[in-house]
Amino acid sequence: MSATTNLSSLSSQGNGATVELAQRSPRQIAWIRLKRNKVAMVSAGVALFFVAIAFLAPVITGLFHVDNTTLYLDRLKDGQPIGVAGGISWAHPFGIEPGAGRDLMALLLYGSRISFSIAIITAITYVGIGLVLGISAAYIGGALDSVIGRIADFLLSFPTTFMFVALSVPLTMRVEALGIAKDNGARIVVMVLILTVFSWPGFFRVVRSQVLSLREREFVLAASALGASRSRIIFKELLPNLWPLAIIYLSISLPGYLAAEAVFSFLGVGVQAPSSTWGLVLNDASSFWQRDPAYLAIPAGMVIVVVLSLNLLGDGLRDALDPKSDR
Amino acid sequence: MLKYISKRVFYAFVMLFVLSMVVYLIFGLVPIDPAKLSCGTHCNPVVVEANRHRLGLDIPLWHQWWNFIMGLFQGRTYGEGAAMIHCPAPAFGYSFPNNACVTEVMAGAFPFTFTLAVGAFILWMTIGISFGILAARKKGTYIDRLSTAFVLIGSSLPIFILGLLIYITAFLLHLIDPITQGTWVSPLSDPIGFFRNFIFAWITLALAYAAIYTRLTRSNVIETSTEDYIRTARAKGVAERDVLYRHNLRTALAPLITNAGLDFGGLLGGAIITERVFQLPGLGYMSIKAVLRDYDLPLIMGTTLLAAAFFIFFNLIVDIAYAYLDPRVRLN
User: Fold this and answer.
1) How many independent structural domains does chain A possess?
2) Chain A interface test: which of B223, B291, B300, B305 (most A C-beta within 10 Å)
3) Do A312 and B152 lie within an 8 Å CB cutoff?
4) Using one digit for the tens of pLDDT, what is the confidence trace for A127-146?
5) pLDDT for A165-211, tens place per residue?
6) Both A84 and A26 in a single domain?
7) Would the CB atoms of B311 and A259 count as touching at under 8 Å?
8) What is the ipTM score, two decimals?
9) Considering the domain B110-289, what is its CATH architecture?
10) What is the 3-state secondary structure (H, E, C) of B149-197?
11) Do both A49 and A185 map to the same domain?
12) CA distance to partner chain A, nearest, from residue B81 (Å)
């Protein structure tokens, strides 16, 4: 990174050796950086593995001849699973749920589908809203900017967990009354809705300040001097510079939403039985842990591993896409 | 400075005012009828209507909101004659399931939330800042790597799992008694019982927050140490200790005020998850119970507004503190 390397690369260009210097797009550079980061790659593998087994839940449970609705009552005695560590066996690799007697692996796999869908949909929605509103506020400016800015300020002063706890029950009733979805479907819609509403303002602010500085940069000025239309400037000049931000925020928020889903289900204001999410299983397990510690340890370990790997992946993506940012 | 403060205070009041309006509007539009909830199992339309009138729910929403605002300053009286209930100011409404004024119920829960927030705050600021400084000073050594691991684990463990694990550990070590856990013990008459009630909840919250503060402190101290004035201080022969405490930390820790103020303000409204795990009947646990048991709307509105008010109030304090520390803020 010294002057000499710069000089030598300049001189090699001067000698007509440009062919040897590979042209790399920012995306390729970021990808190379990410590939070099072993921790991030391993975490990406772990995270992808969990997403894949969530997606393939019916196939995997099919291989073990179990499903998430059958009650294996013959494996229970006085409501407790027979055998070691919560009834772990070849037929039931994670054991049996105490009480109802469902297969824990099937519960967790099908549960992770709900958890992952909520997290992914929320992340995409809030990043999308943040992008659209951030660009509009900064690029159109004026009254629109101050109105959106005020709304964002306002939403940021609400205590999110409180609003969720307070609003989830009545909002679920409202969604059901409107006929959008039923039961857990309605609860999932409400969860995504509330999480999105209280998440976009933070990202909106980042996008807005980024666009405000980008629009004064030479390449944007040059484009508008050349007579580029507003939509061309937004889509061809501004948006490509905002993707890294969007990807960083998307990946960093995912573990938070997984945890949020688990927390709200744990508190009893999220998804409800007979569906199973990680939070629900943990909630149930928290009252059984003395007699069946494995029932608590397995889902807790799963949540920790997934959240940890997603956090590490998010850090890696941030390092790769935005190396200047401080940690 | 005075002009800046008055502007901020005014803005905070406007915010609270609008917030109360929006909360009222949201809750006014939900398909839950507090009047129906208030009459318990022996319900008939006449009682519901009587209760609706008694609670002042048979008038337009904006008027209800106005009564609510006036009640905050003047107190409120529900019903007449023998069935009259009076809630002194600041009245947040009447909670039927608790048979008490919302203010009273919240005042009973506040000591738990307050103690939890203050204790956790002291603990996490001490751990976070000292660990952060240590990691920044020993950058690249095993201490630094240890701090990175701590940050990672602290920010990755969802707080309810962390809380459950700590609760179980404490229980297995016979340090928590699930029967007495969560009853108020005066710190003056029984300091040990008082600490036993809170210490594990403090640790849970502190671990989760300390991770963030370790990371912030570490990166701020490292960033500040590359500044020119730090080099100048070293060049003119200031002792390394003084460089750190007088020059570096002043700049590095100032931004933490924002985080600290907002986090503390957020916790004063109630730490729902931690209170639930450790069965501490604070504002957070109370609201989740109010939601799950019978959707006690006045109580839920009270706790939500109170939590928002704390948050806005600490936002204000942070702004003023920052203006005091950094003249650029107040002069701009």
Assistant:
1) 2
2) B291
3) yes
4) 999 999 999 998 887 888 88
5) 888 888 888 888 887 777 788 888 989 999 999 999 989 998 998 88
6) no
7) no
8) 0.80
9) Orthogonal Bundle (1.10)
10) HHHHHHHHCCHHHHHHHHHHHHHHCCCCCCCCCCCCCCCCCCHHHHHHH
11) yes
12) 34
